[in-house]
Amino acid sequence: MNVLVVVSHSRKDSLTFQVTDRFVQGLAEAGHQAEIVDLHEIGFDPVLRAEDEPDYTQDNQRFSPQIETEITRLKKHDAIAFVFPLWWWHLPAMLKGYIDRVMNNSFAYGSNKLHHEQIIWIALAGVTEEQVNKRNYGESIQNLLNVGIADYCGVSRSKVEFLYETVDALPEHYEELLNQAYELGVNYASAFAEQSAK
After folding, report:
1. Helix (H, G, I), strand (E, B), or coil: what is residue 162?
2. d(CA 97, CA 44)
3. What's the pTM value of the predicted model, to 2 decimals?
């Protein structure tokens, strides 16, 4: 499987990037190919401007050059992984802008849908699992990403994986998080097969 890994964090030395690297190592171990897209490094503009607003009168809408480039990149892959810190129980603004602009009408929904087999959302949460599940935050996030975005765009095999307590933890815990990311890569295909069988 060829996986596009979209990562959103401003610092290369962040845990988000370490998790990305270990996840990709796991993918490689399982025989998958991966391309990492660092949204900050490519200078992605997250602001949806008039030229990329959805035009529901068109079945095949043309977009700005930056968006056409990202659409072409997505078309080359069988699956997608998003790696990001969870901020205010949501995607960072950079990644939200990527979703707004790239997963657009006539490409990801409308007259066409995404062709990808599956999507994984690896969310780094600074808080505990108990805090994420307080007031059903975790369930709300999963519904937003799996149903509101992925399924709406035609990808029914979508899952959110939370990495908990990513702030001010002991070194042993950070290593556990990195091992968890590695295992997510190794089991990327089989985890969805198990999910489908339930």
Report:
1. strand
2. 9
3. 0.94
Q: What Rg value do the Cα atoms of the chain yield, rounded?
A: 16
* Secondary structure tally for the chain: helices H, strands E: 7, 5
| Residue with tokens 């990495």, as numbered in its chain | 163
On average, the pLDDT of the chain sits at 94
Give the domain ranges of the chain: 2-197
Superfamily of domain 2-197: Flavodoxin domain (3.40.50.360)
50 burial (CB, 10 Å; 0-12 / 13-18 / 19+) is: exposed
Give me 149's structure tokens: 């975005």
| Nearest-angstrom CA–CA distance, 188 and 120 | 8
Tell me the pLDDT tens digit for each residue of 49-61.
999 999 998 888 9
Strands lying side by side in the sheet with 2-7: 33-38, 2-7, 79-85, 118-124, 158-163
